[in-house]
Hints:
By secondary structure, the protein is mainly alpha-helical. Helix content is 69%, strand content 0%. It is globular, with a radius of gyration of 18 Å.
Amino acid sequence: xxxxxxxxxxxxxxxxKEFCDARDWGQFHNAKELAIALSIEASELLEIFRWKTHExxxxxxxxxxxxxxxxxxxxxILYFLVRIAQxxxxxxxxxxxxxxxxxNNKYPVDKSKGSHKKYNEF
Length: 122
């Protein structure tokens, strides 16, 4: 298994592309369908945590099987996110840097530190 610190995003894109190309799934992978799949997978992750207290949620990560299940759902989310980026030539690193800069401007430390308020509530 390759670890996070050993793999780059472009390698993930290539791995997913090869997987999809081998199955001729590109014909089904348009932006709308991939975004729907991404949303469904995110909901499946949420389902694991539904009705759990903060303490119960934390306990899930101490159970090897449950932690693996959480990881599987997170991998599904990552798969569809990366697939959209790969199909539509979107650079996720650039997008994240750009968005973090916008967030930095929306949530200056002096106003947002320790607060859960949205930027328009400051």
